[in-house]
Amino acid sequence: MVLGFSAPKSGDESSLRTMQYQQFAKSGLLRILLQALGAVLTAWACFKITGPLLIGVWSVLLVAAIAFGLRNTKKLGEIEFRSVERSDVRRQLSTMIVTSFVWCMPIIAISIMGSASDLALVWGIVACLMVAAALFQPFAPLSTIVFASLTGLVGTGCAVYLQRFDIALLFLTFASIVTVGALKHGRTFMVAHLARVGVAEQEEVVSMLLREFEENQADWLWQIDVSRRIRSVSPRFAYALGRLPEQVEGQPFLQQIAGESWESGEFSPTLRDLAERIKSRENFSNLIVLVVINGEERWWELSGTPIHDDYGAYAGFRGVGSDVTEQRKSNEKIAYLARYDTLTGLPNRLMLNEALRDALKFSEKWRTRCAFLMLDLDRFKAVNDSLGHMVGDQMLAEVSERLKDLMDENAICGRLGGDEFAIVIRDASDRQVVDKLARSMISRLSQPYDIDNHTLYVGASVGSAIGPRDGKTVEELMRNADLALYRAKDDGGGAHFQYEPTLHKHAEERRQLEASLRHAIAKEELVLNYQPVVDANNEQLVSFEALVRWNSRDHGFVSPGKFIPLAEDTRLIVPIGTWVLEEACREAVKWPPHVRVAVNVSAEQLIEPDFTTTVVRALSASGLQAHRLEIEVTESIFLRDADIASTALQQVMDLGCTVALDDFGTGYSSLGYLRKLSFSTIKVDRTFVQGAAQKSAESIAIIRAVVAMADSLGMSTTAEGVEDAEEAEMVRTMGCTKIQGYYFGRPMAADDVQDIFRQPRRPRERISA
Asked: Across all residues in the chain, what is the average pLDDT?
């Protein structure tokens, strides 16, 4: 590679070879001057011995060799604009060989025509040319080696011819030394050249990276001296400081970023940390520092390393920095969103868990008690469904503000989700604290809300658990508080209930009951009972209401009041309701044509997209005529999805079925329901019948109002819960068209219904099984 015999392939070798040939072309004038000087000295030394003729001939040959070399050198000068080829290598080698042979001629001539001393003089001149070539042409060692080798060998041969072996050995040794020296000098030169090229490339890369770095919109370079004054200010750094480069150069670094704290010396912890690191002269990376630029607080991310001069002395700091204010704000916002509820601004479940965990640790350490309260809004779903989620969200925001007003340093309130909130009381050693706060929240949240020109009312139910008595972990306390809340709502809401161990037992019982209910249909544990409905005027049987009963193998007879709400909560009411509908239709088809069957339908069933298909399938499979099927619904169906429920019921009526509105007046009564759908029957709840029997003026007025309204709308009325003849006569005189109750018959099995139809019955005779 150093000698350059072959054409290079690529990479460093190609660069090196190009340099060699370019330098060889540029040194052409120096070679001519050296050879001209050598020629003059050689002609002077040989003039008396060889005569002018030979000197002239040799001079012509030398000029020709030089001219040949200049022509080849001219072609080598073009290498800067092209790659090195094999012809360039051969051309350089031929030039060196021709020139060397021309210089061998005077050595040969002197050895023939002169003495050994004359030979030594001429060869000495040639030896000077060798040394000059080795010294001034380190980039082309091949040229020196060829010249030294040929002239050295010829001189050695001539000395041997003159039988001066000592001179021959001297010539050979000197030529060998020059050859080896030229090779080593050339190698050293090449290594140094490659090193310079590498450094230049690194400097170019670093320069390019620095330019790109400086052009970046966020990052910049900074440098300070031993006095902590800014040096070599980059434009981006000056821009970050909000000043011009010339205004910043030489200014104290910390003063530029400390703001007003520079005068007081009360630096921020991050700025003090930066000063300490610079003072201790230690590297630092990605250090977040709070700075003040033109009175505005900013966050910088700085990295720095100490710099030293050529003698190893400390010379300051150099590093990179970037403004991460927006990034930090984004991170803070993300952290806030991870711990706070976006709608109410209250702590979310994650933060409540942390607060409860800390409260438990505090209680364990100081032998105190903490508390966890869960709060759920009563009747909030009605607001959401009737007025929309936007109004519901505004109400939740108002609820959160009311809760914040009730909190103190000992309590933290948060939102778990939906309309469910929670409160952590750090020190609940005084048991009255929990109950007092619970009652205050219920009272405050039960006050009216004025939202979008609506005056709204909701209530609140609270369940609480005391730690570590009711649970030593966050999970246990939250679970037990939830059980207490469930009990409070189960009792009608608007109350506070504390956790009791029996609640866990009830929850486990509920879980087992749910597991059994899921397999009740498959195990044929469900049965239907039928309660008769009679005409109020002649007491003739007009229909039966199908009532589902559950006789579980594991739990025995389970009250409908117990398993029906469970089925609705778990949506098991959908498959159970489908079974009830199909079974009732199969049984009703066996009855006389004038007797109808009424089936209760839950809101969960109505919102199913295939509810109408379920009705059609039940009628088709049983063969029951549509007008003999009556669907009974309660007002609660309109609080879930009123439009879907209305559409489903209208489709059922289009089939020919009738629809009855059950328990009218006990829920969220509204004449709007009666305007939306053409109900066939309105059923008066048994509570009003019993109230009227006890001479309650309010109950009597409600029954009469319902009857009058139904008559005007062309609907019939059914009085429920009639238990004796006096009540039957009372509702008859008040205008009810149908009667249902124990007085005319209790719910009975399907076989008992068939027995009724087999036995003729006279008017006003009670139905019994």
From this structure: 84
